[in-house]
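Section 3.1: Structural characterization of target chains.
Under the original work plan, the team committed to producing a structural model for every single-chain target entering the pipeline before any wet-lab resources were allocated. The record below documents one such target. The sequence was received from the expression subgroup and is listed exactly as submitted; it comprises 258 residues.
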Amino acid sequence: MDHLKVTIIQSHLHWENPVANRTQFSEKIKSISEETNLIVLPEMFTTGFTMNAIPVAEDTNGPTLKWMQEMAGSQQCAIMGSVIIKDGDRYFNRLYFVHPDGQFQEYDKRHTFTLAGEHKIFASGSDRIIVEYKEWKICPLICYDLRFPVWARNTQDYDVLIYVANWPKKRVAAWDALLKARAIENMSYCIGVNRVGLDGNGHEYTGHSAVYDVLGTHISTPKFEEEFIETLSLSREHIASNREHLQFLNDRDSFILD
């Protein structure tokens, strides 16, 4: 597939209310009028970024995963976003990438946000994944992972790097800068989907969801502090021509993560 159509949804979130959030995202997804291949939702899109995991955590085959499978099937596109999951006796901030046929892949957030005490509640993931979808290679990561470029380094020639987030207003300048940097240094599209509004702890979010091309050009419509839905077409030729011409990835360092 020469073009991948990606829809980003920047939204407020109902605090610790999975039913209300699934309902609102059902409505938003069904309102998408143009063809899309992939819909990207924010981090912890059913609850907001809460450390109160016990009452809202879902089992590994819980209602939100089933909802994502139903929506992906009915809309015939992939859907991704992260959810609070209890797996055994541990809690994870887990991202699901759900394919139209209901098959899914999962990624557990590697870098838990110590400033908010996330590391005290949630176990850290150990494996990065590359999703192969419609002949595109996609690397999905979560929020705080954005601050750690080694974890995102493009050693597997992925085409798209995607961050789902609850990134607060007070540090949104870093969000803007780092998304652009990840696109440039990895010569890939870089997508960041953030939320807006106030959460239950009084933290304010101003969105700044964005899509950058391999040269770091902001190709989405800048919309701050408001909900919006936007679909963009990513070009394989844009990736290939710039990588062939510039060849920056050929000079990348080799390393192994412990």
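The chain has one domain: 3-249.
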